[in-house]
Amino acid sequence: MIRIGIVDDHPVVLDGLASSLAQQQGLEVAWSASTLGDARRALATTPCDVVIVDVRLPDGSGLDLIQRSTPPAFVVLSSWDRPLYARAAIERGAAGFLLKTAPTDEVAAAIRTAAAGGTTFRAAHLQALALTSAPTPREVDVVRLVAAGHSNDEIASRLSVSPKTVEAYLTRLFERWDVASRTELAMLGEREGWLDL
To answer: What residues pair up with 60 in beta bridges, in sequence order?
Structure first.
């Protein structure tokens, strides 16, 4: 019997997935959680073999739960088909990345594969690992502050750097991702999931 934990903040998804997986041969839902905090408590108290986890949770990113070296295995189940999400999941040691549009049989197969030590990633997600140029943590800080509407001087003050350094970050970001304005940069950061990681 493969014991499963499920982490998702949408009650319909959480209940529907738990109900669907409980009907699958050889699978048992050990616990479910809707926040990072609840998931961490469940992981500490209730053993399981595989955890299905969403990326966006009310108190942070579900990717922060993933542990590379110790059981359980983690399979990311997201509404968002973003290359950076897949890349982050792979780099953190997830055993799979599926979209919420996947049928229950596909999710169940990914759980069985993860429990056996295998992985489930689409070719496009593996390509994301090689092709996606991830922004640095400091670049993400700059994009986050731009998205919040801060000026260069305000960003410089918050990050304890000079305004010239902020300009250099922005120039590099504009050139690397071919955007022409702060608004486009903020929209890119949101679309690509940078602000969630």
So the answer is: 57
**From the CA atom positions of the chain, what is the Rg in Å?**
19
**Superfamily of 2-130 according to CATH:** Response regulator (3.40.50.2300)
Q: Is the pLDDT of residue 10 over 60?
A: yes
> CATH class for domain 137-196?
mainly alpha
More confident residue, 44 or 91: 44
Q: Which pLDDT tens digit goes with each residue over 78-90?
A: 988 877 788 788 8
pTM of the model: 0.68
Domain boundaries, the chain: 2-130, 137-196
